[in-house]
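Teaching assistant here, posting this on the class forum so everyone can see the example we discussed in section. The complex has two components, and the goal was to see what a joint structure prediction looks like when all of them are supplied at once.
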Amino acid sequence: MEYAQQPFFNRGPSPLARFLLFSLVALTLIVADSRFKYLVHVQQVVAVALYPLQRVALAPAALFERVSGFFTAQAQLSVRNNTLEQQNLVNAAALLRLEALELENARLRGLLDTRASHSQSAVYAEILYSHRDPFTRRVIISKGLSDDIGQGQPVVDAAGLVGQVTRVYPWASQVTLITDKDMTVPVQVMRSGVRGVLFGIGSDGALELRFMPFSADIQAGDKLITSGIDGTYPAGLPVATVQEVERNAAFMFARIVAQPTAGVNRYRQVLVLSSARPHPENPGFEEPAQQRKRSRKGG
Amino acid sequence: MGVSIGPRQELLLPVRPGFLWFTLLVALLANLLPWEGIWIWIKPDFVALALLFWIVREPRLIGFGVAFTLGLAMDVAQASLFGQHALAYTVVALGATLLRRRLRMFSTDKHILQILPILLTAQAVILLVRLAGGAAFPGWTWFVPPFTGALLWPVVWIVLLAPQRPRIDPEHPI
């Protein structure tokens, strides 16, 4: 006669049952996050709990930077000062022109009786770290909900467009760089005014201008700026420089590779701009707000 | 020919739960450090290693729940897909639970080959989840961290077990 062996100690469900339970929960979370973006509040709670730990983790690097900054050589500083002064001069000249143009623009708009173009407000932020998720191109910056950062705001550095705020935590937010595989930026060729959509391809130094016909007036060296038609990015921000244009009759469209202007991976300081302008309401039907935001991101 | 019965058995002091939680916190901290350059590719997942060690050593104290929670923390910290690390660490916890008794038969250098498949599976789980979500394949360097993690295992074993080794007074060995 066989006896089923009774366990000496009751330890609850078996490892396999626990594994199934927890992996089911994890899969549910993954689907809820990737498809429906439901879990923003849960993530914010975890982010708050994690915040002190993250500050501690970043402290050594910050300390090292401060110390090495203290010992920067005098010569280096003076060279840097020189270049900055020169640049300042150039910028000042451009700024003077800008002021004049802005005045003129305001007058002309007054004449046309249109709404004044949205004035930009900007929040300064520092890149805390770029994390090690190799599937995406994202960085974490040091400002969040507490500084009125909102989802979808464009992020720029001194040279051009860096990316877009995609997730906001209380004291930090996540910026998806324009080089990310899922990012698109509507752009315009500065020289000829041709409009197109710039796609990130997931590698650091390259972007692709897709779906452009052979006849499009684009050459290597052309500067691409945001066209502003998406309502997310304000018009006129430098985005990329065209590197190579390949017109192969075997394909439907020209293959155009561009290099981002901004130091997408190099700089520490960025500016978070307020979104360009509120999107005009769609007259035909009502769309849930979230849906609209996503379609806007998609260009 | 004698049959060797595993490694030399040690008499160890009981673990202090405070030390266990402290090491898990340190592992999380190590994962959150701003790694740069080539280290991003090489760096093992310290949290997975610490989880593996403690679930093998002290299954009564920690298990699936802790692994899952630490995974959620990693996801938020890395701003990756919410739940991917939770799933991976759940896999690690299962591997550790299944391997627990077997590992006691081997010395630490032989553990390496035992735990490598667990770390590789966890890494592959993350990869599969991301590929299913439409991400591009990040290249074979993706699978480097499990190897460095497995090679680091003997060190982990020595360091995390150190507080449990009794201090022997040379004057009075017993």
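For the discussion questions: Chain B has a mean pLDDT of 87. The longest helix of chain B spans residues 108-132. Think about how each of these relates to the inputs above.
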